[in-house]
Amino acid sequence: MAEYYMGTGRRKTSVARVYLKEGNGKVVVNNKEYEDLNGYLKNSVWTLHAMEPLKVTGLEGSFDIMIRVNGGGKSGQAGAIRLGIARALLQYNADLRPTLKEKGMLTRDPRMVERKKYGLRKARRAPQFSKR
């Protein structure tokens, strides 16, 4: 039985559970198989961002990746997947920690959308002023 390495990532309102299994780079997102992560995210910048932990550690193509992701938009999901992959890699090999930490891949991005306030159009945008 092949061993799985699991990591949970969060970003904005997205949550990603990432499972790594030694393999040849197969990607499954929400029980649907894709050629690569770009098939799901549809944006090469988001794909590069999400796969960065594997690239930095030189392990790209050596794991089959199974991802369960929900909430938010594709950008937030890419960030959540990135953190999930980084945490799963730590389970695989704790010696990768300094490399990942130096690149800031083990830090959860705390930025969230600010709530809308009453009397305003958005969080800070005031209603348009009319002189007459």
UniProtKB/TrEMBL annotation:
GO cellular component, one term: cytosolic small ribosomal subunit
GO biological process, one term: translation
Database matches in PROSITE patterns: RIBOSOMAL_S9
Keyword Transit peptide: no
Gene3D superfamilies linked to this entry: 3.30.230.10
Keywords attached to this entry: Ribonucleoprotein, Ribosomal protein
Record InterPro entries: Ribosomal_Su5_D2-typ_SF, Ribosomal_uS9, Ribosomal_uS9_bac/plastid, Ribosomal_uS9_CS, Ribsml_uS5_D2-typ_fold_subgr
Pfam families registered for this protein in UniProt: Ribosomal_S9
GO molecular function, one term: RNA binding
Classification via NCBIfam families: PRK00132.1 (NF001099)
HAMAP family cross-referenced by the UniProt entry: Ribosomal_uS9_B (MF_00532_B)
Protein family (similarity comment): Belongs to the universal ribosomal protein uS9 family.
The protein's name: Small ribosomal subunit protein uS9
Native source organism of the sequence: Thermosipho melanesiensis (strain DSM 12029 / CIP 104789 / BI429)
